[in-house]
User: What shape does this take?
Amino acid sequence: MFAKRSHHNESFSKHRAARSSSRAKRSFRDNAAAMKKTERPTKPDGSPATGSTLTSPIITICVGPEQRLFAAHEDILSTSPFFAAICRGQFLESASKRVNLPEELPEVFSSVLEYLYKGDYYPRLLHNKRRNSWELEDAANNNGGRGAVESTVYHQGTGQTLLKDTLLYCTANRYGLDELKRLALRKQGMQSGIQCSTILASGRYAYANTPDSDSKLRAHYLALIIRSRSTFKRSGTMQIEMEAGGKMFFDLFVALCNHV
Assistant: This one.
């Protein structure tokens, strides 16, 4: 379930990419294809996922505690090392070709599938030729969007509302999809109007679900808090979180010392 976005006083609304009202026509996927064709998603054997022409067997994926069903081609799923191992038969129920993912969120997994098929997920990242900058697809600005989309998702496992792009980053990390990680991190940097409590909860989730060797998402949260420290300083949630402690706040202390 999607959580409503709040815009009260304790929200982060600065330090985001500028948005233009002009129409953006080139997508992140189009740009990647033109600039770096060799980095298209590949199967473990090195052949492009699109080479199957979508004729490979259909895999049914059962997602979340409510067992929402998704379907995808085996060759497309095998772009991910995680699913490639499953499709080789380690966990797959051979008779039904069904995969159970009870811990995943349907809202997040649907975006993963969209990325595997299309190279991006909604809202797409579009290039504004006039400004020579990237921005998120926005139906209100006539960029061809599908309508309003929430930037947060309620995570039942934590009982908190978290940033969807953070959840996607962590999911992509588990699935071995490095390009999706980069895309999710880039899109998260364009979000605005997010409550301090949501940012802090998402930061904690990022620390709990990424290895110490993967510092990019963690560094994003530290930089975000430092840039908006005047807002976070007034936040009662920040005080409660700091009193609770954790590695994120030690790293924040070190980052602040380096920043001064």
Q: What stands out?
A: Residues 20 and 199 are 25 Å apart (CA to CA). The chain has a mean pLDDT of 78.
